[in-house]
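Subject: complex prediction, re-run

Hi both,

The earlier run crashed halfway through, so I resubmitted it with identical inputs.
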Amino acid sequence: MAFPKNLSPDGKRLPDLPIDPEQIEKGSSLWQDAWARLRKNKLALFSFWTLIVIAALCFAGPVFTPYSYVEQDLERTLQGPSWQHWFGTDDLGRDQLTRVLVGGRVSLTVGIIATCVSLLIGVTYGAAAAYAGGKAEAVMMRSVDILYAMPFTIFVILLMTIFERSLLLLFIAIGAVEWLTMARIVHGQVKSLKEQEFIEAAVSLGYGTRRILFRHLIPNVLGVVTVYATLTVPSVMLLESFLSFLGLGVQPPQPSWGSLIKLGADNIQLYPHLLVIPAFFFSLTLFCLNFLGDGLRDALDPKSSKD
Amino acid sequence: MFRFIFNRILQSVVVIFIVVTITFFMVRLAPGDPFSSERRIPDYIQQRILEHYGLDRPAVEQYWRYLQGAAPKRFRPDKLFTEDPLLNAFGIDLGPSYTSARTVNQIIAETFPVSFELGAWALLIAILFGVSAGMTASVFRNTALDYVPMSVAMAGICLPTFVMGPILALIFGVWLGWFNVSGWFVPADRVLPAVTLGLVYAAVIARITRGGMLEILSQDFIRTAQAKGVPYGKIIFKHTLRGGLLPVVTYMGPALAGVISGSFVVETIFQIPGLGRQFVQSAFNRDYFLVLGTVSVYAVLITLANLTVDIVQVILNPRLRFED
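This time it finished cleanly. Structure:
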């Protein structure tokens, strides 16, 4: 039963309060709160904009450079930076600036897509395990534990050497490694959410499992998932470049930051710029992604501590 | 406690078995065989080669024969320091290598000590620098002594091994000329690879140590100790360190796995004749038995490390003893 306006529970009339409708606090969503908190974090914000600039350069930049990333000029190999070739040329006379940008495009694309793959598997698996409960949950999470103990980098290397190397295989291999952490995190989150009243309410209203899972549980773990997705992107990029460095990832003539760094590492004695420039872009991107992830964690999940 | 250890040992054996099985069928069922990449040879010779190595048999039979060879049989400690300790002391036969005249046992006996030394130095560096930096940062929280090491640690985490290695080689090898850029001959050759491999883990350990220490420092029993007038140094080293280092102990398992995969890159960069480089090359060459042998060694190492970590954890944290 609602009380009539301006009456206290014992029926006395209360004085009119000078409430300005403008001043009534508007409810703010999780994402608005998070954005407000993120905006105060200078380092995270700086990382965010740097990432946007790097991504824009990598995706749009190669259109504006006068060279293509496969165009060889065997008379001008291994040149230092000049006005014609800002970052110099590589061992086949290809424009290093274009290759660094295209390599970044490849690395970023792999990072984002493989993260999405791991996200899809991890969230579904973790949520399903937690929601199922009982024996099924125990078996599912125990197998994640066992998989965790596997030397996965080794399997990925084997996969990449044994089968026809392709970008698709790379996505599958990396996604297969990275979903484990995501499954664990989502499992923990859903497990604690499951006990709360609003889920009980949904169950008593007779909603089906799928609806509860996708409408009630998963939206509530989105915050945490966003944070870990942001932190997964750099680790995926790291794995991709690690493979490309060993010659097992992205295949030539397609460049990636990993293979560019490999070329630089092979030529450090005479042509250090081949190493320094891609290494700089790669590290800067990893830096920014990690700082942004940390910032997002503080913004979206203020309860968890930083370390 | 003993049941716990027994369970964990059992689980380790299962993990090793699964790893070997997956690896075997992955390399076996993949298209092509070690000899198909060579230039064309007459079919009857090809057939003879396959027969010689038993590769014409069904995969399951090959698998069974491999397991029989690879299973440890009798343990003879007196033969531990022979040229082929795997075969002589444990009765393990990992088969022939297709790309070299030596057996897989011999190759592992030659390359493993090199990688082991590299990994041991790297982990030592990681623990030494990581723990001391993390402790300093937690004791002097929110001062320059906290921010500076933690920023450096963040940089260390972001700079992967294959960036750090060439850059260190460029600065200290090419420009300053203090060390050789590659090779594994004189003791000084250990410095750059070990530092490259250890720094990332030093950075992670520093962050974990700091977090662990801060967590313990904020607890009531520390305040009680302070109120009782326990000297600050004693609070840090005696009361806090034991609990604060627990997360670091937990991290040692993943750290070892990371050092192993890092060794693939570091041994390639610095041209070190170790097991890591051997593994990558054997995978490239489809040298099945060599791949299987190296993977088995890694699987045993990683599970051993995880097992040790679990047991040390129980010793350090008595509360875990009551769980099974």
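Chain B has 13 helices and no strands.

- K.
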